[in-house]
Write a structure and sequence with these properties.
Blueprint lengths: L5 H5 L3 E10 L5 H14 L4 H21 L5 E9 L2 E9 L11 H9 L2 E10 L4 E12 L7
Helix pairs in contact: 2-3, 3-4
Length: 147
């Protein structure tokens, strides 16, 4: 039996996902930023778009880390679909953990991305824990991506 790949499910020009799980501590942000930069550059985003994506990943992950429980894992999933890089970041938080839509960080995220959302699972069956906060955003490449 043939194993289906992401491109089989979503169509041509879809790649990924790349998923990274690291302890939810600030010193691991550099790793998440580097992976995001590498994926965006390899997928043909221009330098300004790569910078926007790295800033967005840094802000989203930093806000999740600030609200995370001790010893939580930060999950960051990157996928390419139809010329857009989608980032899904999540961790277990002590409080509501969803960033205020009035905060500078949230407004910056909205400015450098094309779509942005955040929500909290009261109970995440995949992790078996409460209060998992997710921040998702996507950035469309301005020019046709190389492939």
């Amino acid at each position: 039996m043939r194993r289906c790949e992401l491109v089989d499910w979503l169509g041509p020009r879809c790649h990924g996902p790349v998923e990274l799980r690291v302890p939810a501590v600030a010193r691991h942000l550099v790793t998440v930023r580097m992976i995001t930069q590498n994926v965006a550059e390899n997928e043909g985003f221009d330098p300004d778009e790569v910078t926007d994506l790295v800033l967005a990943v840094d802000e989203a992950c930093a806000s999740l880390i600030r609200a995370s429980v001790p010893e939580a894992l930060l999950t960051c999933r990157l996928s390419i679909a139809f010329g857009a890089l989608r980032v899904e970041a999540s961790t277990t938080t002590v409080t509501d953990g969803i960033p205020s839509q009035q905060s500078f960080g949230w407004r910056m995220l909205g400015t450098v991305t094309d779509s942005l959302s955040a929500w909290r699972y009261e109970f995440d069956p995949q992790r078996g824990v409460d209060r998992v906060v997710h921040i998702d955003f996507a950035k469309q490449a301005a020019r046709r991506m190389a492939r």
